[in-house]
Request: fold
Amino acid sequence: MSINWVTYKEGSESDILLLENECMFDCFDGVAISILCKPPSLKSWTCTKGLLCLTNQRLVYIAKDTDCDFKDFQSPVANLKDTKLNQPFFGANYYSGTVMPVPNGGIPCEAEVKLQFNEGGIFNFVEAWNRLIQRFQEVDSVSRVQHLDPLPPYHRPSSSQDQPPHYEEAVNKS
Reply:
């Protein structure tokens, strides 16, 4: 079963097919994932080992453990909210956040997602994630720029009294 299905390159079950204008940032092996839907739906999915790939458009998880509840999962970057790095006193560091559902996806409502980096690499992931989020924010802020009022139309002065000093000299030189 796939959650928000992932398309693979032909003949491979770990090499994801990138979307148009999508590029791979980094991949992290040995990552555990748990997805817990918020009430009213109490669906949940877990996997203890898999490959996590971060692209410029989405987060993709491919399960490598045969005992997992699902085969793969993906979420658009914009659908992951309230993300944070967690460093428990005991256990591996993990990254958590809220994933918003996509139309016709496998997640029925908002869900808590937890990515546990059992084989290291979380700080590289956090650095790549923060760069990606910063780019999203820059693009968003550019699209919301307040434009100034248009400049008034230019009208040629009607008399020499309305012209700035030395205007005639400058016009005659050119």
Q: What stands out?
A: The chain has a mean pLDDT of 81. Residues 98 and 112 are 5 Å apart (CA to CA). Strands lie at 2-3, 24-29, 31-37, 44-47, 50-55, 58-63, 72-76, 80-86, 94-99, 111-117.
